[in-house]
Write a structure and sequence with these properties.
Chain lengths: ~575, ~400
């Protein structure tokens, strides 16, 4: 090359360099603007974008029986998710997952090929399943712990209508789960963390955790063994008589503690969605019913405690009575007449004479009758800590026209809940003191400290102690020789009252549809427990003394056995009817 | 001069620094994709190291090579490039990625023919322009065949489609023609034709148009067309002056797309800050400086044009890429030389570095003498051509004839 040409080429190369130099300078200036001048603003957008903030629910507390047996608890659970963009082979992935998730592979494959970046394949599954899925090492499929864990009810159907259940978000939807939701839920925490674009937490990313607090344990007054016995007796009785529904209650008289509260039909809270809503219902507290003859106790209490009727007073023993054009009959259960022309209050209760009860109530008067209904708390809710309790349905006395007081005397024209009536009987067993029924004993925090104890709570004195003693004797007579002989338990003194009530629907009595009931007190010589049995719409037999009393006998027998109350050696009851139940817990 | 000089150490060290920075940044930026897709954070890093080794080999070959030999191989190189570029368009050979056919795949490694074509066209143009003094002033004998060769490659790469690389060919040719003294009038006409044509091409395709408008206002569609550029700026902004620290990028966790290929500079800026990012720009400028110094010191015209072409190709790519990542100009997919993950690009860039180093070593007297003999044997050509009534048939076309035989 000539020197002249070389210098021309050099000049152009230098020009090219300066162009690049200017471009590079431009880029550095631009970089300064983006990184330094606007850096903070851009960085804050980026930080917002990387930041994820979400609440963590506290692990839900347990529900246990009075001895700590778990009714509802929480076990570790996982959620199984997929990130379709990361999946290598949707077909083989679907085939591998299908048997584990119990879902058809083609449907899974469709989901895995969807356009979303994140989908849940399943939630609230046992941890072991999550471990198996992780073990497959599938790309784009992962599991993570459910922060709330899985609610499990190890007792299944036992006590289900009391315990209730929770929804997918772990909120209580029924029973104790909803009534004590705040106690059980604990306190939610919060996680603030850095995530990737698929909302997965960054490895070694910043993470601030405000820990969630586990909920407290609710210890119930229920005894799981007695609850099982009650459910068992109900299921057998309901099946035997093809009943529509049935309820049973076991109360401790002196404390008001509910040892068992059972309803049939019931359901399995672990898969509540598979059952009808009707089976979730706690009938014993939610459904008022016309009690029939078990309500005669209230009439007797009013009569004796007010002094309007003495034990020696007699009433004409009629089979029917006309009150202002309304004729009242005795029931035809074969125990109609005492054979005398006149009968005492005790006879009326023992043989459950409607005519006699009506005569007594008319002598007592509606003001006094209404006063004792109020004292028993039958016109109100009992205040038990369960959701959905209904008050009794009792018209105020100034609306009791014509024969009304006479029919209320034997439990017609009033509606009460099973629990409130059982509690009324407990007042007699308790020397006249009405207690608030208790379903919860204690609230215990996760460290085992008792946060709150539910002490027995006296509501009021309903009657004099002497009145209670007299009524107890009358109720013993019912079992000894009256309508309730089927309730006798050899070796024990039993007091109780039968009830057979026509069912009211839409204000009309349904002929041939009954609630058969028995409420009893054991042991009657040292009264401690009240046991109630209600059977709705039994087929075939329908008298309380025939349908409910045998069920009572079985359940009360198990209560006595469970509570360690020994039988007297000699059975001195007037009519020994049933065979001795040697092993009440089996069957 | 019987012995060749030692190669330009500054150039080699600069290239080595950029390559090392690239490998480290590839490790950092690709680790997330590696671990989610292959359960191995170093998946791409391991492959990158293989490419670095191949690149180092290519560089060594380049240094040892008498660059004059490339001039003789130019038609063959160009022919091979055309064959490869045509072949990649066929589904049997070309692998599709992102809707474009740009690669040959061999197992987990791939080969990008347009990177090879880049070297081929540079060598070919350098050979053409070296024919005589102020060669580019002669449109008929030099300018026209140059345009023809560049045009064919441009159209083939555009078919893939890869507008960024295709445009790069035009720009390399433009700078080489300029340095060869092309008339400003011709260059102005070239720009006047090319720029509106490119704009029309961009506007004809909705997706290219969207990318262009996204550059003007990325916030108009932050989740769609503006996404790439916004995420890139968030990353750079997060870096600030000193960066969030090596390996600490947050944007690489799926926010920034193509985080270890076309947008790796954003991750670099986030992790190493303005200081680190500016240092990379300075290294590229230093590389450009050394490259052009080598051109100016070259013994012959071919060495000059070859050095200008290679230096220009690398500098253009670097500054286009950095301009895109910083949203200085619209998005086109061009990798950052030495730094982006991508085997062919790295190997070809390092081969280019080797050739530059070879040019800096000068040529042995024997090699120059051999060339002189070849040139003498060609001197009869113009006479022959005139006899055939084709007076201005340039030598390049003869080369194309050789190319046709080769196929």
């Amino acid at each position: 090359m000539k020197e002249k040409e070389r210098s021309r080429l050099r000049a152009r190369a230098i020009l090219v360099f300066w162009v690049f130099f200017v471009v590079a300078g431009l880029l550095v200036a631009r970089l300064y603007r983006v990184q330094v001048r606007d850096g903070a603003a851009l960085a804050s957008i980026a930080v917002d974008q990387h930041r994820a903030e979400y609440p963590v629910s506290g692990k839900r507390g347990r529900i246990v029986d009075r001895f700590g047996v778990v009714f509802a608890g929480t076990s570790p659970a996982v959620q199984i998710f997929a990130q379709p963009p990361d999946i290598e082979n949707a077909h083989s992935t679907a085939l591998a997952l299908a048997p584990l998730l119990h879902r058809p592979a083609p449907a899974l494959e469709r989901e895995l090929t969807s356009h979303s970046t994140f989908i849940y394949l399943d939630r609230m599954r046992p941890k072991a399943l999550g471990d198996r899925i992780d073990g497959l090492g599938l790309l784009g499929v992962g599991t993570s712990d459910e922060p709330t864990g899985l609610r499990v009810d190890p007792q299944g159907r036992i006590g289900s209508t009391v315990i209730g259940f929770t929804g997918i978000d772990n909120q209580g939807l029924a029973g104790i789960e909803v009534a004590f939701n705040d106690v059980l839920s604990g306190k939610a925490g919060q996680v603030v963390e850095e995530t990737d674009s698929q909302s997965r937490p960054l490895p070694f990313g910043r993470r601030v955790v405000e820990a969630a607090v586990t909920g407290d344990t609710v210890m119930l007054t229920l005894d799981r063994a007695l609850q099982l016995a009650a459910e068992d007796v109900l299921a057998k009785t309901a099946a035997q008589y093809s009943a529509r529904s049935a309820s049973a209650i076991v109360l401790r008289a002196d404390t008001g503690e509910i040892l068992a509260l059972a309803n049939w039909p019931n359901y399995d809270p672990n898969r509540y969605a598979a059952f009808s809503q009707d089976s979730y219902k706690d009938r014993a507290i939610a459904d008022p019913y016309e009690p029939g003859s078990t309500f005669k106790l209230v009439t007797a209490t009013a009569a004796i405690d007010s002094g309007r009727v003495s034990l020696d007073d007699t009433f004409p023993a009629e089979n029917a009575i006309d009150i202002g054009g309304y004729v009242i009959h005795n029931a035809d259960d074969g125990l109609m007449s005492s054979g005398h022309m006149r009968e005492t209050l005790s006879d009326i209760v023992t043989y459950s004479h409607n005519v006699g009860a009506a005569e007594v109530a008319m002598r007592v008067g509606k003001r006094t009758m209404a006063e004792y209904i109020r004292r028993y708390g039958l016109d109100d809710v009992t205040g038990v800590d369960l959701p959905g309790e209904s008050p009794g349905i009792i018209d105020p006395p100034d609306q009791w026209y014509g024969s009304r007081v006479a029919t209320i005397a034997f439990g017609q024209g009033v509606s009460v809940t099973a629990l409130s009536l059982a509690r009324a009987y407990a007042a007699i067993a308790n020397g006249g003191m009405l207690m608030r029924p208790l379903i919860v004993r204690e609230i215990v925090d996760p460290q085992g400290r008792v946060v709150r104890r539910y002490e027995p709570q006296i509501v009021r004195r309903v009657m004099h102690p002497q009145t209670a003693a007299v009524l107890l004797t009358m109720l013993r007579n019912v079992v000894k020789r009256g309508t309730g002989t089927n309730a006798q338990i050899p070796g024990y003194a039993v007091a109780g009252k039968t009830g057979t009530a026509e069912i009211v629907e839409n204000g009309q009595y349904r002929t041939g549809e009954y609630v058969a009931s028995f409420i009893g007190i054991v042991p009657a010589d040292k009264p401690q427990y009240v046991v109630l049995i209600n059977v709705e719409r039994p087929r075939g037999l329908y008298y309380g003394g025939l349908v409910a009393a045998p069920a009572f006998r079985e359940l009360a027998g198990r209560v006595l056995w469970r509570e360690g109350i020994l039988a007297r050696r000699v059975a001195t009851e007037a009519r020994p009817p049933a065979r001795v139940n040697t092993s009440p817990v089996q069957q | 001069m019987t012995q060749r000089r030692a190669p330009d150490a500054t150039l080699l060290i600069t290239a080595a620094l950029l390559t090392a920075a690239g490998a480290i940044m590839v490790f950092s930026a690709s680790s997330v994709v590696g671990i989610t897709r292959y359960h191995d954070a170093a998946h791409f890093f391991k492959r990158e190291l293989v490419w670095v080794a191949l690149g180092a080999l290519a560089c060594w070959i380049g240094v040892k090579l008498d660059y004059g030999a490339l001039r003789r191989a130019a038609p063959w190189l160009l022919g091979t490039a055309v064959v490869l570029l045509v072949g990649v368009l066929f589904p049997h050979f070309g692998a599709i990625e992102g809707g474009a056919r740009r690669w040959y795949e061999f197992g987990s490694f791939s080969f990008e023919p347009s990177e090879f074509a880049k070297i081929a066209i540079i060598v070919f143009l350098a050979g053409l322009l070296a024919e005589r003094e102020e060669s580019a002033r002669d449109f008929n004998t030099i300018g026209f065949p140059a345009l023809l060769a560049v045009g064919v490659l441009f159209m083939l790469v555009l078919r893939q489609p890869d507008l960024g690389t295709a445009t790069l060919f035009l720009m390399i040719a433009f700078v080489m023609l300029f340095s060869a003294g092309a008339r400003l009038r011709h260059l102005a006409i070239g720009i006047a034709v090319a720029v509106p044509a490119l704009l029309a091409f961009v506007y004809a395709s909705p997706y290219r148009r969207a990318r262009f408008t996204a550059f003007l206002d990325p916030n108009a569609d932050p989740k769609g067309t503006g996404y790439h550029i916004l995420q890139s700026l968030y990353g750079l902004g997060s870096g600030g002056i000193f960066g969030v620290g090596l390996g600490e990028s947050r944007q690489k966790f799926g926010y920034l797309p193509e985080q270890y290929t076309d947008f790796i500079f954003s991750v670099l800026g986030e992790e190493l800050g303005f200081i680190g990012a500016a240092a990379i720009i300075v290294l590229f400028l230093l590389f450009t400086y050394r490259g052009l110094r080598i051109a100016m010191a070259a013994q012959d015209r071919f060495g000059f044009f070859l050095a200008v072409g290679i230096t220009t190709a690398i500098a253009l790519q670097a500054f286009i890429n950095i301009g895109v990542v910083t949203s200085t100009w619209p998005v086109t997919g061009v990798p950052l030389p030495f730094i982006s993950y991508g085997g062919t690009s790295l190997v070809m860039s390092l081969f280019g570095v080797g050739i530059l180093a070879s040019i800096s070593r000068g040529r042995s007297r024997a090699a120059v003498a051999a060339d002189e003999r070849i040139r003498d044997s060609h001197s009869a050509h113009p006479v022959n051509r005139r006899r055939h009534g084709r007076p201005s048939l340039p030598r390049a076309v003869t080369s194309t004839g050789a190319l046709r035989r080769a196929r």
